[in-house]
Amino acid sequence: FDAEVDKDKAADGADERELAELAAGLEAEEAATRASAAAEDVEEGGSEDDDPDNEFDALEDLSDDEKTQFLEDVRPVKLVLAKLRKFAFKVVNSMTILLPAWKMLLNEMGLPEKLIPRDVRTRWNSTYGMLDVALAYREAIDRMCGAQANGLRVASS
Q1: Segment Disordered: which positions (predicted)?
Q2: Extents of the domains making up the chain
Q3: Is residue 112's pLDDT more than 90?
Q4: Which of the four pLDDT bands, split at 50, 70 and 90, describes residue 119?
Q5: Alpha carbon separation from 127 to 33, 78, 82 (Å, rounded)
Q6: Cβ contacts of residue 118 below 8 Å, gap of 6+?
Q7: In contact, 82 and 3? CB cutoff 8 Å
């Protein structure tokens, strides 16, 4: 699920605004992640990217009402994925604050040091990999996001 949202519809509700805000920086973050993954592929001697010619849009066959209902039903999933993508990106790219805090927290909890893999649209099943690690490390993620010193919490209005 992509976390993109129609900018005109973003003003319709709090969830849409939150999704739009979260998705705003995802393109740049995904480009950075894709570049890093491509560099790793070169080192490993290959690439397992999906073939974009084989893609199809499952929403094409739905009526407008069905499409609207589906998009409304998956909105919470998109929000969670966008938040998780942001968290994973921030931890990996914050060498001085978040990454050391993440490693220290994992050591305190007795968990092996592991980063949450970022999902990338061009890599099949990368969302599953991200969610699999996130579920295994859910308590650590909750504690990391709950600590105000980490700066991961959004101020409430």
Answers
A1: 29-64
A2: 9-150
A3: yes
A4: confident
A5: 13, 12, 11
A6: 29, 30, 33, 85, 88, 89, 92, 126, 130
A7: yes
